[in-house]
Amino acid sequence: xxxxxxxxxxxxxxxxxxxxxxxxxxxxxxxxxxxxxxxxxxxxxxxxxxxxxxxxxxxxxxxxxxxxxxxxxxxxxxxxxxxxxxxxxxxxxxxxxxxxxxxxxxxxxxxxxxxxxxxxxxxxxxxxxxxxxxxxxxxxxxxxxxxxxxxxxxxxxxxxxxxxxxxxxxxxxxxxxxxxxxxx
Length: 184
Prior knowledge:
Blueprint: E1 2-6, E2 9-16, E3 21-29, E4 34-39, E5 42-43, E6 47-53, E7 57-66, E8 69-79, E9 100-103, E10 110-116, E11 121-126, E12 129-138, E13 143-148, E14 151-160, E15 164-170, E16 176-182
């Protein structure tokens, strides 16, 4: 997904399908932090409500019409993809200490990770729930593997500093999954 504003033309581009074909439509942003899209010769009935925006994060709720009622259809958190020169993976010791904060990719709920070096485990908190998972980290390949009850999630760390972790993984459908955590 990409939002652009070139020469006063506000455009939203979604790259769809296996070929990642671009689908571009105009958008507008109102005083109530709502994003509307122009499709099929009119402005849509639904909108995206911006909940949080920073230099790197855009968190939204998606509203649509259900009959004559406006309802929440879902939520999402989008992360800016960094430029290649921003990608530096620091020493493994940067993982430890304070909590790393992000948003759950499915629900948009706040999520924290805390790596515990002595136990080789990670405390994963989402929406009030806490899960302890084992992890391994290969400092050469920068691959982080999380294991819980026989299930594995594998991520490649593409940036690790004292304030940021960028991870790339693959979701259940085989699609790329990008996550960003920050120390607050």
